[in-house]
Amino acid sequence: MALIFALPVFLLAGLPMLGYAVTAAAWIAAAGLQFAAERHVQRSIAGGRRNSALGAMAAATLGRLWLVTLAILLVGLADRESGLAAAVLAAVLVTVHFCGLAIGRLMAAEDG
Fold it and tell me: Domain count of the chain?
């Protein structure tokens, strides 16, 4: 959702669209990786394979981190201004993502 709201900011502020495009692509790919890992975790837990579930979550978390970081690094090497825009956007996306997770867990704890 934050990615959608960032597009008009990039357009109105005249920020490099290369930074937005690369970060958006990496973020969406990382979300797909996380989704696949969560499905694997559910199957592993249902099958009683906790180590497999833990390994999948660890690999997905590190994979997301590396994927987004490498995307920012590569776009930054191509164009410094685009790299800075990509890094700031990624920082905002990560912050919003973790805040959303924290709020979701707090709300789930209140229901339980």
Answer: 1
